[in-house]
Specification:
The structure holds two protein chains of two kinds. Chain A is an all-alpha fold. Chain A is built from eight helices and no strands. Chain B is built from ten helices and no strands. The termini of chain B are far apart. Classes of the chains: A mainly alpha, B mainly alpha. Chains A and B meet through α1, α2, α3 and α4 of A and α3, α4, α6, α7 and α9 of B.
């Protein structure tokens, strides 16, 4: 293969092994090409100095921990519906009973609406306002009690957190409780403020999910 | 599509370091090498399936197989050991979250390195933003290398790191992937989502730039061709 100085850069860019061999032969007779080939190869040797492949098992421990945390979060997010729809314990009969209960609730609601349709406009709006507020407060109380029950179940695990993940759950719950207390105080001052109620609901839901994650971890 | 070269140690690919042929010259394939490459393809597919199934052992195998190289690349891209470890950890989390979107259009390992490179770029960008917010005096966004393991020629390494910081991000990526981590151009093309020709051209330009920065000016006579 006949190689000249003009071929050098092309071979640097994309030369075949044969072309490189021919360039090396040419460089043995050409000082300029010998210098260029040497400089080109020196970069590859210098790059070797940037390679440090030592083992680091501590990093894997951290990665594994965060991967397991991610897995638990995903499980907690999907766990409720999976349990509801696909668990073997939740048989078809159970699901039918749940559907039946929903139908009964819908029917009772319809009866309630029909019975109260005949009331006067002013009275209706005031009654609806008061009854809705009472309903919200009753539902919130029930919801809070259910979450308190969850909190009681999770308490042993949270009182003495065994893992950093559990410690972070505990901290998160403390922050959530603080936020819930503040919002409840605000809602007490302004009971008709729907925005505050929504915020409070979001906090309760977050607390519920966090407690579920704690209990999932326990399992 | 690059699949097999990823797991070959760089010595198998870059024969120039051993003094045979030129940089980037690949030895012709022997039967044992072909067998090894077939094994690598199977391992790659196996890992992808394991990670998709959420098998923690598959993630651990991926770390054992590619973790050191991922960490090394991230450190060279970011110039910081701590940030490199964060980037690798972040990459594994992104793999876990995004494995459902992996379609097998490139090798699984190529896909993981694409995530790693993008994660490193994101980290660098956020570092630049932080610097701007704190009105840092430093104008250069290039990585500031930290102390690392002892090497044979520390001054050579430092000089190269300084010179690399002057390259464009794209040139730096290609140089590190090819010359340091031992990827093939086909694999770099898949990782950076560019053509193989673009990878070759970028490496060529990167090396030309590095040479002009690292080598003392030559005499007029030596420079004349």
């Amino acid at each position: 293969m006949n190689i000249t100085c003009n071929d050098r850069e092309r071979i640097f860019l994309d030369g075949s092994p044969e072309e490189w061999a021919a360039l090396e032969q040419h460089a043995a007779r050409c000082a300029a090409c010998a210098e260029e080939v040497r400089g080109w190869k020196a970069l590859s040797m210098a790059a070797e100095e940037m390679r440090d492949y030592k083992e680091d098992s501590q990093l894997w421990a951290k990665i594994e921990n965060s991967l397991r945390g991610g897995e638990q979060r995903r499980t907690a997010e999907h766990g409720f519906w999976e349990r509801l729809t696909s668990s073997r314990e939740n048989s078809l009969g159970w699901q039918t009973a749940l559907a039946g209960a929903l139908v009964v609730v819908l029917a009772l609601s319809s009866v309630y609406v029909v019975l109260h349709r005949g009331m006067g406009d002013s009275g209706q709006s005031r009654l609806l306002k008061n009854s809705t507020l009472a309903e919200v407060e009753r539902t919130e109380r029930d919801y809070r009690q259910a979450i308190d029950q969850l909190a009681a179940d999770a308490k042993p695990q949270l009182d003495s957190p065994a893992t950093p993940l559990m410690a972070s759950y505990k901290e998160k719950l403390i922050v959530l409780d603080g936020a819930i207390d503040e919002l409840r105080t605000e809602a007490g001052r302004n009971p008709s403020n729907a925005h505050l109620r929504y915020q409070l609901l979001a906090m309760y839901q977050e607390k519920q999910l966090t407690l579920q994650e704690v209990l999932e971890t326990k399992r | 599509m690059g699949t097999v070269g990823l797991t070959l140690r760089w010595e198998h690919r870059i024969s120039s370091v051993a003094g045979e042929g030129g940089p980037g010259v690949q030895p012709s394939e022997s039967a044992p090498q072909r067998n090894r490459e077939q094994g690598v393809v199977a391992e790659d597919a196996d890992l992808a399936a394991g990670c998709l199934a959420g098998d923690m052992r598959a993630f651990e195998r991926l770390y054992q197989w590619q973790g050191a190289r991922m960490r090394n690349l991230a450190r060279n891209l970011l110039g910081s050991q701590t940030e490199a470890e964060d980037a690798v950890q972040d990459t594994f989390l992104k793999i876990q979250r995004g494995i459902g979107t992996f379609r097998g259009q490139s090798s699984f390992v190529t896909w993981t390195f694409r995530i790693l490179v993008n994660t490193c770029h994101d980290l660098r960008r956020s570092r630049v933003r932080r610097k701007e917010q704190t009105r840092d005096d430093s104008r250069d966004a290039a990585p500031m290398p930290e102390p690392h393991a002892p090497v044979a020629h520390p001054s050579l390494r430092m000089a190269l790191e300084r010179a690399l910081a002057q390259l464009t991000q794209h040139q730096r990526d290609v140089f590190l992937l090819y010359e340091v981590e031992g990827f093939r151009h086909a694999e770099i093309a898949a990782t950076l989502e560019i053509s193989e020709t673009a990878s070759k051209n970028t490496l060529f330009q990167a090396k030309k730039n590095l040479r002009s920065m690292l080598e003392p000016p030559r005499s007029a006579q030596a420079g004349a061709r």
